[in-house]
Amino acid sequence: MNTRTHYDVAIIGAGLSGLAAGVRLAHFGKRVCILERHSAPGGLNSFYSLDGRKFDVGLHAVTNFGRPGSRGTPLLKVLRQLRIDRDEIEFCEQRQSRVAFGPAGETSLRFTNDFTVFEGEVARLFPAAMDGFRRLVTLIRSTEPSPAATGVSAREIVRRHVGDPLLEEMLLCPVLFYGGPREHDIDFAQFALLFQAILLEGLARPYEGIRAILRVLLDKYRQAGGERRMNCGVSRIVQRDGRAVSLVLDGGGEVSADEVLSAIGGPETAALIAPAVGTPGNPAPGVITYVETVSVLNREPADLGLGGDTIVFFNDSPRFHYERPGNQVDVRSGVICMPNNFDFGAGRRLPEGLLRVTCLANYDLWAPLPEETYQADKRRWFPLVQGAARRVLGPVADAAFDAATIATDMYTPRTIARFTGRANGAIYGAPVKSPDGATALSNLHLCGTDQGLLGIVGSMLSGISMANRHVLLKAGGVGAAP
Ligand SMILES: Cc1cc2nc3c(=O)[nH]c(=O)nc-3n(C[C@H](O)[C@H](O)[C@H](O)COP(=O)(O)OP(=O)(O)OC[C@H]3O[C@@H](n4cnc5c(N)ncnc54)[C@H](O)[C@@H]3O)c2cc1C
């Protein structure tokens, strides 16, 4: 087949940013098509079936919750711009989470969706740092949520304000784990954005997980007349005179469009452009990636004695090492998620217990392994990752934990690279972002992770704002951009 279809806008990638951009454009009558290499939508936040169970790929928690009554939050902007009523997706709040440092998480800062809880914890454990912490929070609140880099180190600013090395690490830990694209530190603007998203606006989850969000986006997109081609990767972007003139598809067909939005990442998009345009400025891929283990339990984690926390960011010592590990996995720190511990309403429970644990990993040490060694290494690391997490949770005997475990799964940086095309399996993309979405071609724009907004809400907001800026505002078809 070698026919070429022309669209107003072609979107590469049916992750959350691509879907949100598609919905927005289709609502304004644009002829739009989303091209996705895989059979399932969602990208880094998709779901899959294993032995009859549906697993979420990424979802621990939706950040940016914003309690009812709050105004102007990113989540509310996303819902409004996509014409989604708040009750079309029922967000259930976290119960209680923690940042836990020490071999057994002895030094813990609890937080809920009520920020005064976190403030109280900082005051209890770090009374001498409290004034500085308050000033830091004021600065964060007054920092406009924007992906544009300030060029200022968040670590420097946090250190200057709180003056306590342990508190500095405990404040950086959740932010870096949920969005740090480079090792050790993060730009202050991104720190402020993520601090607001996690700690000020808070965490929630739809009862059905990511499927509830994807279903609404896909329904809206279809109803508005958007087209979607699955199993249809873009293998090459043909450029002429500085413009993308055609997208060559894996199967050999071609698509052209007035404007192209790419949600697949900066380096990954640059690699598709042929003939190659000037490499200076092409972003280098990131190296931050994870393994994740999932244990399905025959009862709620709390009933097994693992406690009632929703999310736990843990680290076994006073120093937090956010970096590509020298080993396949670094089990010194990680993120625990127990989805059963969201507040789903009286009497409503998930059908099975779930314990998910994420740890930093090294893509290069997973990618080249022969299949047999790869599987053996997964089996070797699984108990080590789970063991690291269980040291921080309530004490449960191995025998009791094993008896309650009815299924397990584990994925690695290699899985992430394979299913999303992200170079190095880097889940937060390239360290250098493109806040205006600019690429080497004038009608090709980035959206999603490498535009600089990430996470579930951030990537949707990115898709919307890039669609507004590069298509709708240009055409004079829309009012204020988000
Ligand atoms: C393990 C893990 C846990 C996470 N936990 C959370 C969480 O708890 N809360 C939260 O808010 N966020 C979380 N995230 C982050 C969140 O999933 C991402 O920030 C967000 O989904 C990124 O969306 P995106 O649209 O930018 O990119 P992607 O999701 O990467 O979408 C890009 C899409 O493009 C497709 N594609 C790639 N190359 C091509 C090509 N050449 N042609 C066609 N299609 C192509 C891919 O298949 C993919 O579907 C997590 C991510 C991971 C991996």
How would you sum up this structure, described in words?
The chain has 482 residues and is of the alpha/beta class. Helices cover 32% and strands 22% of the residues. The strands form 4 sheets. Strands 1, 2, 9, 10, 11, 12, 13 and 19 form an 8-stranded mixed sheet that branches. The chain has a 7-stranded mixed sheet with strand order 7-6-15-16-17-14-18. A two-stranded antiparallel ribbon has the order 3-4. The longest helix has 20 residues, at 371-390. The radius of gyration is 22 Å and the shape is globular. The two termini are 40 Å apart. 51% of the residues are buried. The mean pLDDT is 94. The structure holds flavin-adenine dinucleotide. Residues 12-18, 35-38, 43-45, 58-63, 233-234, 263-264, 290, 292, 358, 416, 420-421, 427, 448-449, 454-456, 459 line the site of flavin-adenine dinucleotide. Flavin-adenine dinucleotide (FAD) is lined by residues 12-18, 35-38, 43-45, 58-63, 233-234, 263-264, 290, 292, 358, 416, 420-421, 427, 448-449, 454-456, 459.
